Every structure is written in C-alpha cells, then in structure tokens.
Amino acid sequence: MDVFGVDIGGSGIKGAPVDLARGELSEERFKVLTPKPSTPDAVADRVREVVRHFGLSVGPVGVTFPGVVAAGTTRTAANVDKSWIGQDAAGLLGERVGAPVTVLNDADAAGLAEMAHGAGRGRTGTVIVLTFGTGIGSAVFTGGSLVPNTELGHLELQGHDAETRASTRVKEEEDLSWSRWAKRVSRYLAHVEMLFSPELFVIGGGVSRKAEKFLPLLEGVSAEVVPAQLQNNAGIVGAAMAAAAAGAVPAAAA
User: Fold this and answer.
1) Is 178 helix (H, G, I), strand (E, B) or coil?
2) Closest residue by Cα to residue 189 from 151, 216, 161, 153
3) Mean pLDDT of 67-83
4) Burial letters for 107-122: b for 16+ Cβ neighbours within 10 Å, e otherwise?
5) Cα gap 194→100, rounded to integer Å
6) Residue spans of alpha helices (H) in 24-87
7) Which residues are CB-neighbours of 75 under 8 A, at least 6 positions away?
C-alpha cells in the first residue's frame, strides 16, 4: 500500500508516494524550493504542487514540519516563518491538498523511518536520530518508543544555540572544512551523550550521503555513531508511516 509523504524543510519541500511494506519511495521524489517568506499559505501551495506532481488519486498524506507539532498544530518555527506558530497545519494542508493530512516534527518522522527500516531497526536501548540540515533535528527513542518533539538542536553549545554552530547550513555558510565541522559536531554529540547516554546515534539529513567524510573524524563520543540508511528520504518515509498509522480521518481532525 502506497501512502504519500511530504518533507518540509527550511530550503526545500520534497515528497513521493511510499511503499510502506518496504520503507522505500515508490517513485523518484519531487522537490521544490521553500518559498521566501515561508508563510503557511505559501508553503501549503508548494505542498499541493508536490502532491499534484504525481497525478495521484490522493489518500492519506503525511507531512513533516521543522518545529514542534502537537495534535496537528505547529507550536514553534525555528527555520520557517514565525506565522506558523499556533497554525492548524493539519487543517490548512488538508484543505489545500484535498486529503486527510497528518503533520509531525520532521526529525521525529525521520526517526520513525530509521527505527522501522533503517539503522535503528531492532535496537531497544536509547537511540537518538539527529538530522543535520538547515538546523539540527532530533528524535529520541527508548525501548523502541518515540519521545516526540525533543528539539535537541536548540541545546546551548558554547553559549550558542547548537544548530547555529554545527548544522550543515553553518558548515556551508562559514565554508568549514570537514575536519573543523567534525570538531563542532563532536562537541555537540558529547553534550547530548552526557544528557541521555544513548547506545546509538544515527546521523541523518543530506549530509548522511557523505558520512565517510566526517564520521571517521568524530572523537570524544562513546556511543556508536552511524549514518542514516534511508539518508535524506527518511522524512518522507516516516511521514507516510505516520499518516498510515493515523488512518483515513477527516483532514481537520488529522
């Protein structure tokens, strides 16, 4: 059974139908740029564009969001327009795409996919999935269960919001070498490890495709650190998983 997943990011919005049994995209994903400003209406239009690109008779749709999501309402907005705060995202997006929509935190979605089909499969201890991109997202699992909306990218690191020091965007903006960026990531991972003592870190986001460039450079971390197996498709897969789990309910109640 294919369910549609859409991943809203600070720089791009991408989506595809997902084969839930295999945890894979059924078709090559389609991506558009996140609008500037990234207001709810503007982003909703781009989400509709992504969904309609496939010409599908749309069933349940899962959508990730870069911030805290509670019962379909977006509570924070670190890397998109602040007008998202307090927005009934499930209702807005459901109305725009004409289908039931389930909305969840982007890193939580990636984590769900990695735990079911990727690097975290079969692990029952504390696992932390971190997505490095425009910011740093986090998904914390213990006993296989998700602790939602942890937002560990906003932990303080050397007097700064961690994602303003160690995200992929910062690496690009400051033209950091892999070695210099890995030192920052190492400090961040060591700080998170001190707080949660995970047995496994899974590093996701687009940078996971280049894991060989930085994982061997990490130091000072006791936990196992591995790249996400679903790489940058994890959010799409996890969004579809969440939509399927929520069931075909009216968009306003998703």
Assistant:
1) helix
2) 153
3) 95
4) bbbbbbbbbbbbbbee
5) 40
6) 40-53
7) 67, 68, 69, 85, 86, 149
Regarding predicted confidence, which is higher, 30 or 158? 30
Nearest C-alpha neighbor of 51 from the set 90, 7, 4, 104 = 4
What H or E segment, with its residue span, contains residue 227? strand 224-227
Give the strands of the sheet with 73-74, arranged side by side.
69-70, 73-74, 87-88
- Which residues, at least 6 apart from 109, have a Cβ–Cβ distance to it below 8 Å? 5, 7, 62, 64, 234, 235, 236, 237, 238, 239, 241, 242
pTM above 0.70, yes or no: yes
- pLDDT at residue 56 in the model: 65
Judge whether residue 194 has pLDDT over 80.
yes
Q: How far is CA 187 from CA 97, 111, 248, in A?
A: 42, 22, 43
- Examine the pLDDT at 130 and tell me if it is beyond 80: yes
Instruction: Enter the tokens of residue 124.
Output: 């029952």
On the CB side of 174, CA atoms within 13 Å amount to 14
Q: What's the average model confidence in pLDDT over 45-65?
A: 90
pLDDT value, residue 251: 36
Take residue 231 and report the two structure tokens written for it.
């790489």
Judge contact between 61 and 2, C-beta under 8 A.
no
Share of the chain above pLDDT 90, in %: 89
